[in-house]
């Protein structure tokens, strides 16, 4: 006798209540919740209105969020109370509905929670929805940690906005290099081809690891005959490896600088390669990111004349208290933020102990003046609309940029320009940015495998034994 199968009812979709900071962080967040429904309280709209004035990134995002919501609401012909379908305005990205608060909500919050505060009024809305819509899973979405803690203290469900996160765990972030197994040549040596090209050894290998390799990934194998190579071409199970220039040797020095470890050697190979237009260097303080990049930039600007000049920019986020407005031109205002540039130029110019470089103290001063004419320091605030042609563009402290700001900067690159992003994702000073959602993490993940980009994570500090110990112990 055939048994009758019980119909399985699909679980109801969730109802997400959006805090203002989610919309100001990502104006497109309305379309990022797939099949789930969204609820926007009146207080969220009020806070968007209060933050829309000004030229900051937050103000721009607030205006963009308001415009997106206006497009969604104005396109709706039915009653707003029933929810506005998001499938059409989101072009199929979201299939849920948008609910706006259309009635006054009277919820008694605990006596210890002041009702005048905007955050607490949003919490009151979440409490009301939880009581009224017992059939729905009501969740508050906020980038504000304290808001989430308060919600949980009141017995409400709350979570962070995860859609901007490139990776949940930054340990999984692409490092740009890979150690080849000991049996690599045994497992990949069948039908191997090898030849010399422009003084470099090239190998065409086939095997199971070839599928996993990325273009411009740096591979190495230590031992009696060490191998340091880059993945030059890749075609399915076939990969072409090309040996690297040894920048640890003094004869290959770059503006007097030699690589002190394997990762620095890899970094200089990427920085000096004319076929690579985008390089990202990650690493903690003292790993040599800025020094290597400036040395490579000066060599290619002043010696080989590959680029016209170096342009250096960084996010002006103070670590301590802000010191107020700074006097002078754009370059003079940026000078206090460019201490790293000054320190590294002192190293590259030669120290007074060794006679001040070529020509003693006079030669050192002349070299410094020549270098000054070829390095421009620019503020991020004036980058929109610019195009850099034949420039060596360095973006320092890139971990403090959002993915949107990073896109704005990298798309400034015109013909013949090389962009280098430097940063340490463990030192983020921008509010609401985490290691997983930083613009630097975003570009490392999105650019991996492109034939004109390269990335390396520098491991070892080379600043001093004190700095190395402090980085580990503190």
Automatic annotation (TrEMBL):
One of its GO terms (molecular function) is ATP binding. Residues 14-149 form the PIN domain. InterPro entries: P-loop_NTPase, PhoH, PhoH2-like, PIN-like_dom_sf, PIN_dom. The keyword Cell membrane does not apply. Keywords: ATP-binding, Nucleotide-binding. One of its GO terms (cellular component) is cytosol. SUPFAM superfamilies: P-loop containing nucleoside triphosphate hydrolases, PIN domain-like. Gene3D superfamilies: 5'-nuclease, P-loop containing nucleotide triphosphate hydrolases. Belongs to the PhoH family. This is Ribonuclease. It comes from Candidatus Dactylopiibacterium carminicum.
